[in-house]
Amino acid sequence: MLDQFLKNKTAIVTGAGQGVGQGIAISLAERGATVALLGRSLDKLKATLEIIKQAGGKSLAIRVDVKNPQDLVAAVERVVAETGGIQILVNNAQEVPLGTLLEVDETKIEAGWQSGPMASLRLMKLCYPHLIGDGVIINLASSAGMRWDMSGYGAYAAVKEAIRSISRAAACEWGPEGIRCNVIMPHAMSPGLKWWTENRPDEAAEFIASIPQRRIGECKQDIGDFVSMLCSEQSRYVNGQTIALDGGQARVS
Fold this sequence. Notes:
Elements lengths: L9 E5 L4 H12 L3 E6 L2 H13 L3 E6 L5 H15 L4 E4 L14 H26 L4 E5 L13 H21 L5 E7 L4 H9 L1 H9 L9 H12 L11 E4 L8
Parallel strand pairs: 1-2, 1-4, 2-3, 4-5, 5-6, 6-7
Helix pairs in contact: 1-2, 1-8, 3-4, 4-5, 6-7
GO molecular function: oxidoreductase activity
Family: Belongs to the short-chain dehydrogenases/reductases (SDR) family.
Keywords: Oxidoreductase
């Protein structure tokens, strides 16, 4: 039996239908949290919900387009109505704009901006009243912002670096009210990364070779379980940090 150190906590996880979001949601539920699963595909969310249910955990699935402010308002209201509050917010959902500066589609950049930093900020503000006292926010950025060669990654890195700035501001502004906000930069075998390794095998091989541990992380064991720890009382003095969960590849500054 795992330690239920998040018992009586409610968590929201966006993009919880697959990949890193799913891994985080499952881990939080294993530690006792009731997890609100948010995402665009109800079928994928139901798959995560079933995994949690089979393990004896508690969750609810809410179809949401994180780019739609009204969807976010309705989701937060439903979570509070059904669970009584919110103590943990994990902003994981992100549409990824890839391509060189001359090639990348501006509509994809806008979608990246709206699904990433804007959605994160909106949910942070909506959850803020419920997080006061002992709340935890975990936002996801990317080590793409640390690449020495940014070719093809400038737009993606830009939206992810905006999330880091918002997160640091929240840590400073809301810390006195008992709210912690941290950022993780994970490498894990999500569907997106799997697609990348299959479609850019040479680049992916070079990428993996640059990881000191020579492997890509597991969504639940390497990323989700760390997030659970970061939400725990044992991490109560960790605030305003960007933490790379990448086997030692990135040097974060």
